[in-house]
Structures are given as C-alpha cells and as structure tokens.
Amino acid sequence: MKINQVAELVDITKKNIRFYEDQGLVDPDRDPTNGYREYTLKDVENLKQIKLLRQLGVSIENIRKLQNGSLSLERCMKDRLTDLDEEGIALEHMKSMCRLISDENEDIKALDAALYLDKMKDIEKGGVQFMNVKMSDVNKRKTGAILAAVAVVLFAVAMIAIMVWANSVDPAPGVLAFMIVIFGGIIVGVLIALRQRLKEVEGGEQDAASKY
User: Is residue 210 part of a domain?
Assistant: First the structure.
C-alpha cells in the first residue's frame, strides 16, 4: 500500500512516517519498477507500535533498541516509569498504561498497539492528556525559528544604525540609501521566511526533536 493509506490507517502524517524511516525504525520495500515505497500490514503494525511508544514518551533511541532486541519491553516500560517519577510528571493514567503493557506483553512482537491506543483515546475523552510529542516539538521549532529571525533582524538594524552614524560623520547619501535598501530587504526577506516557516510548523511536520 502507498504512504497516504498508511498515514490514514495509523493516523499520523506522511512526514512522521518518513522521519521514522530516516531513523531506521521502518524499512518498507520498494517497487523495483518505479522505486516507490510499498508498505505492508507489518509496516502498519510497526508504525502503530512506534506511535504508541512515542505517545508514552519513549525515545526514538529506545524504540530502536526495542526493535533490535537490545532492550526488553519490560525494562523499557520500567525505565519510562522511573523517568516519569524523576520528572515529576503527575500522569497516573500514563503510568498505569505502562504497567498494563508490561504485565500483558512479554516482548515488542506481541504488542497490540491498536488495543492500547484505543484505551488511551477513551481515557483522553475524560480530559487526561497523554504525552503530545508533536506539540512539544512544534513549540521548540517555533522558538528556534523566531530566535533565528530576531538575531538576523537585529543584526540588520544594527548595520543600518552604523551606516546612519557613519553618514553623519562623513556624508555619503547615495551609499547610505543603497545600504538601507540592502539591509531593509534582508529584514523583509527574513520576516517573510519566518512567516512561511511558522505556517509549515503549524501544518504538522514530523515529530523530530534532537532529544529523541
């Protein structure tokens, strides 16, 4: 099946899927005639497991270890419970879900992600919010883009101020006007780029974050 179908079945974005592929968590076959990805039901189940673990706050690195067998599901869930305690996160429902998964499953291969995702959806209807990796990463990407834009704009404004001062000492109106146009254009370009970047982030990029 194609990536659009997989995204709909798992309820994640295509960028999510491509990110997990880049991280080596998903490895779909490719059609030899055109090179397009061909996903199987196994890939869909794998993505559901990844989605479940990510919503529980499990890192990409630990999911990778689960898949290659260097970390057991029980150890992973217990480590996650420890992390939640250390971080002071008062989400008792998430801890209960981790315990339930640990008690009911011996390893990742037997994990029925859809079952637990449905349980989590029911719990969320009562007002409980499980970890929203996408929103936390979106906020970080927004902050980074805004800070970068502010830095460039401040630099351009400082250069304009220097040029104005230099012109007051040694007048060269033609040069001053030229430089103001150049740096003014930089400011406008940065603000346009920032606006587009924020739109992209709001549109739902992949759940990529350096800490995972």
Answer: no
